[in-house]
Amino acid sequence: MKYTVILAAVVGIVSTPLVWLLDGPDTGQMVGAVVQAATGVAALVWAVMRQPQTVSEQSAVDTGDARAVGGGDANTGNRRPGATGGGSTRAERTGNATANGPGSKANTGIDNS
Q1: pLDDT at position 2, please?
Q2: Which residues are bridge partners to 100 per DSSP?
Q3: β-pairing, 97-100 with 58-61?
Q4: What span, in angstroms and rounded, lies between the C-alpha atoms of 99 and 73?
Q5: Do residues 109 and 77 lie in contact, with contact meaning Cβ atoms separated by under 8 Å?
Q6: Which of 21, 31, 43, 95 counts the most CB atoms within 10 A of its CB?
Q7: Which H/E stretch holds residue 42?
Q8: Residues 6+ apart with CB under 8 A from 37
Q9: Mean pLDDT value of segment 3-22
Q10: CA 10, CA 46: separation in Å to the nearest integer?
Q11: Over the stretch 40-87, which tens digit does the pLDDT of each residue have?
């Protein structure tokens, strides 16, 4: 993604403004060339300066017990809705999780739902 943005920025900086400037631009074309070049430079700076996405590690170790009733959630492990984000997840020696009643849920490991 980063290299695609850099390439698009370079093309945007050079292409149309160069054509307009070689053809004797009027005021509108000059303003357009400046705006397009500035946008390309901003995209280039953003792509180069952008920090890589942080990756986190989640762990649940030696947790206690949990109980859910009446539609509640009991979780002694890790929750990662949709398995979003990067990094690893681990659950070791988690406590007991019990669910009683309709709609109640229990998890002692890794819940990606």
Answers
A1: 73
A2: 69
A3: unpaired
A4: 7
A5: yes
A6: 43
A7: helix 27-49
A8: 12, 13, 17
A9: 75
A10: 13
A11: 788 888 888 877 666 577 788 888 888 889 888 888 887 777 666 667
Tokens 């000059």 belong to residue: 30
What pLDDT score does 52 carry?
A: 66
Count of Cβ atoms closer than 10 Å to residue 107 Cβ: 21
3-state DSSP percent of the chain in helix, strand and coil, to 5: 40, 25, 35
The rounded distance, in Å, linking the Cα atoms of 9 and 38 is 10
Phi and psi, residue 112, nearest 5°: -100, 10
- What's the gap between Cα 105 and its chain centre? 28
* List of residues 6+ apart from 108 with CB closer than 8 A: 76, 77, 91, 94, 95, 96, 97
Per-residue pLDDT reduced to its tens digit, 16-41: 667 777 777 788 877 887 888 788 78
Q: How much is the pTM?
A: 0.42
Instruction: Please answer whether residues 88 and 57 qualify as being in contact, where contact means their C-beta atoms are separated by less than 8 angstroms.
Output: yes
| Predicted local distance difference test score (pLDDT) of residue 53 | 63
